[in-house]
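Morning run. Coffee first, then this:
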Amino acid sequence: GIEGTQTMKMGLERGLREKIPEIQEVIQAMPEGPPLDQEQVEVILDGVRPFLKVAGGNIECKGIEGESSLQPIINLKMGGSSASLNSVKLEISQRLQRHFMLSGLQVEFL
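And here it is:
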């Protein structure tokens, strides 16, 4: 009767619900970006250094916090006249986020 169908439907929903967290985790792990380390940060910084030099500035990575956490932070230090340019900071942040493909990645300017 109807009760049997209802129980089966609930069982199916529960089964699906239990599988969903796995699916979400898989999505978060893909696509795999390069490892979040100083070396890879330097790759991106090297790409903007010539431009910063022209503007009379420089940039260095002061360290990375919480590499293995969901919200790692890349600490950058900008010097010279370009340090006050928010557009430059935004560009560097976006390049780093595109490079590492980590949704929770934060870029802090010290």
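The beta strands are 57-65, 73-80, 106-109. Good start to the day.
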